[in-house]
């Protein structure tokens, strides 16, 4: 379980998050809020990309940033910020090589994740020639091949057309992993177990998806 206690984040003296207390226990959690509300910073805290100025981010009761990075995979809004190697299989192998895994295990993991999402034909393709939908799926595969316990996704469907958005979210829905999704697409999150509303760096709503989303919409109409 990931737990945040009295978390504050400041950048150049400007408060981004303040007094965040969260226990992330549900299977599907959404994070919503206006642009600049701090929700993306909150998401990045969950796998150690960001660190708190004050407070703690704990994984199973321990403050261990390296363990957090290993346990929590992160999918960015733009897959071009995540895909670094020119060939698909090279990109998927990158993190596994850093773990020092044997070549046979690396190949087996890549085979499995590509087969899982029907991406095997893309194995030797140039990453820059992939479509937007294919890139986002490869970015997701690159996270899953590392065998994380939780996956955090920051606006993962913003750059996708309707068909690819549906295909991508179907892949997410099928995962056994605990998933946290930051999104402006409220309909995407209505079926989630829990939604957290962040506003001006603080949590102003936290509960069932329908109730929190409806309150968010009502606030926007004031």
Automatic annotation (TrEMBL):
Protein name, per record: ABC transporter ATP-binding protein
The UniProt record lists the keyword RNA-binding: no
InterPro entries linked: AAA+_ATPase, ABC_transporter-like_ATP-bd, ABC_transporter-like_CS, ABC_transpr_CbiO/EcfA_su, ECF_ABC_transporter_ATP-bd, P-loop_NTPase
Entry similarity comment: Belongs to the ABC transporter superfamily.
Protein keywords: ATP-binding, Nucleotide-binding, Transport
Keyword Transport attributed: yes
One protein family per Pfam: ABC_tran
Signal peptide: none
GO cellular component: ATP-binding cassette (ABC) transporter complex
């Amino acid at each position: 379980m990931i737990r945040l206690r009295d978390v504050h984040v400041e950048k150049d003296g400007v408060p981004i998050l303040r007094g965040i207390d969260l226990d992330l226990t549900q299977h599907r959690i959404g994070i919503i809020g206006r642009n600049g509300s701090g929700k993306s910073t909150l998401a990045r805290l969950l796998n150690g990309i960001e660190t708190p100025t004050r407070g703690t981010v704990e994984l199973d009761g321990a403050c261990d940033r390296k363990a957090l990075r290993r346990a929590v995979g992160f999918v960015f809004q733009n897959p071009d910020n995540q895909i670094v190697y020119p060939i698909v299989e090279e990109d998927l192998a990158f993190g596994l090589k850093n773990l020092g895994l044997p070549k046979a295990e690396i190949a087996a993991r890549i085979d499995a994740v590509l087969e899982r999402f029907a991406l095997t034909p893309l194995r030797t393709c140039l990453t820059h020639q992939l479509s937007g939908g294919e890139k986002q799926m490869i970015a997701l595969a690159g996270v899953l091949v590392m065998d994380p316990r939780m996956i955090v996704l920051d606006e993962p469907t913003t750059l996708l057309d309707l068909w690819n958005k549906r295909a991508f979210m179907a892949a997410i829905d099928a995962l056994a992993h605990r998933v946290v999704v930051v999104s402006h697409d409220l309909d995407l999150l209505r079926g989630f177990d829990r939604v957290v509303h962040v506003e001006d760096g603080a949590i102003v709503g936290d509960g069932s998806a329908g109730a929190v989303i409806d309150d968010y919409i009502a606030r926007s109409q004031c």
